[in-house]
Design brief:
two-stranded antiparallel ribbon; 3-stranded antiparallel sheet; single chain
Length: 148
């Protein structure tokens, strides 16, 4: 038997961003919350928050989140400046500058990844129902082509 996971709310996201702002860390939201930020409204329940940050700010980010906030890191694909490790070590991912945009969560402007970048990150694996929902939202709002 497992303990139920509490949903992450818009207020939770804004609290995390405020903590990171206090330590002067630059972060961008990806994943489901990033898509909802682009759309400007919450379209589904979220279990986590996907964040990208600068490598040189990693210690500050982890200290802020693990210390005061009590969050835990669940996926370690850390970026290296504008480059991120990938599942293929010989082919790291390079973030294009155009992928860093803003969206809105709870009426607050937040940094997030672009719709095109979200689509790029949602390929090469079997999508979940959440992934299908998220891509449908990007098609609906932006008329953007997706892989599923």
């Amino acid at each position: 038997m497992s303990k139920p996971v509490r949903a992450m709310t818009a207020d939770d996201v804004l609290t995390v961003l405020a903590l990171l702002h206090e330590v002067r860390a630059e972060v961008w939201i990806g994943g489901g919350w990033g898509i909802d930020a682009l759309i400007g409204e919450q379209t589904r329940t979220h279990r986590d928050l996907d964040l990208m940050h600068r490598r040189e700010q990693e210690d500050a980010v982890l200290a802020a989140l693990n210390g005061a906030a009590g969050f835990v890191e669940t996926l370690d694909w850390r970026p290296v400046r504008a480059q991120q490790a990938s599942l293929e070590p010989s082919r790291p991912f390079i973030y294009p500058s155009s992928c860093f945009v803003t969206g809105t969560i709870g009426g607050t402007t937040v940094p997030c990844l672009s719709a095109e970048q979200q689509v790029y990150f949602h390929q090469g694996y079997e999508p979940t129902d959440r992934d299908r929902h998220d891509m449908a939202q990007l098609r609906r709002v932006f008329g953007i082509a997706t892989h599923f």
